[in-house]
Amino acid sequence: MKPGARIAAVIELYDGWTHTRDDADRVVSGYFGSRRYIGGGDRREISERFYNLIRHQARLGWWLAEVGYEFQDGRARMIADLVLHDGLKTAEIADRFCGEQFCPETLHPNEKHLINKLSDKTLDHDAQPGAVKTELPKWLYAELMKLHHENLTAEMAAYNQPAKLDLRVNRLRGTVEDAIKSLKADGIKDIERTPFAPNGLRLPLGLNMLVTAAYKDGLIEIQDEASQICVKLVDAKPGMTVLDMCAGGGGKTLGLAADMRGKGRILACDTHGGRLDNARKRARRAGAGDCIQQRIIADERDSWLRNKSGFFDRVLLDVPCSGLGTLRRNPALRWRIGQRDLRTLMGQQSKILKAGAAKVTKGGRLIYATCSIMPEENERLIETFMRDRKDFRPVPISEIWPDAPKSVPVPGGKDKPWLRLSPNVHGTDGFFVAVFERTAKGKVK
Q1: Buried (b) or exposed (e) across 54-81, using 16+ Cβ within 10 A?
Q2: 270 is in an annotated binding site
Q3: 225-438 — its CATH code?
């Protein structure tokens, strides 16, 4: 594709996304799914530019308003991004907006005037409000300021960078060294070990793992390091009985099976049958099918699951959440999640936490996790649980992971037993994990 044709595709994608406010990944998938003639290299550049427009959403909007430009559509934002982010001049932009087949129409005089006004400027400006600088809706900026204070700008700058590709090596199929050797044989370069997860590898973006022998043989799974750390903190041992109550596609379930060396029983539950179907396929590829049982449940009050009270050594609750910890991979989420959505999620999380606690045997552990950065979904909910459930004690992360690298701080504050991960501090997705041990049978509240 010509450079101008790729730019036209980005504009079309962006305008489609703003019109529907659908999930950005779904918009991209639908766009390329109906245009299979677009090659891999073109797809990567188009996708990257599209997601950059979303990552620069607030600042581009601020600049267009600042210079008095009347339009805020994909074309205007693309022109502004080419100037402010790429540093292109009028002639270079005109080469792309050339009016040829599949390319954008030629530049209008007012667009050339816009380019001149933005020339020699960058995306950032001292006069931008905090919410604009951090690329956040105003309500979300105010909430996160309470958590991060003066560190919020640095935190959000990290969330606004694309994430690298993290892999978990499946120890049921081989070692980390086996995986590295296999990936290198397939021409994969620049392979790094993850700094915290012992079985993790980190690769550059843009690689297709699905065609590698390591993936086909079940030796690797695509999984962010934060999720791998969460699985480690479950501390599942061979022979245990484990409940993964919100299993989804089964990524953490597979990690648990590997930690248990395939010995024991894992019950993976979810309300969506399609997710569990995918989890079954992944389990077979990973060689973990014998110890994993999948089951569809109606909700956290499911009658079959209710009969399992006090039954499990470990209960993992990777609860439905806002997903705001995945902004590096899903930058559009910040513009889709609202305060009403958050309140609804908090109600669901509280119910799941209560139901999950009832399934833990005495001496067993309850692990609450989210890929959210919101205190309402994490610390505040956990503090309520600690106040109401005296039959559970919080387990400090250091007790479960005594050999954790010293560079893994626990930013919950002094004497806070939970772990909060972030791309700025740890290079992972944003993630929250709290672990509790049941000290007595207690009475379900």
Answers
A1: bbbbbbbebbbeeeebeeeebbbbbbbb
A2: yes
A3: 3.40.50.150
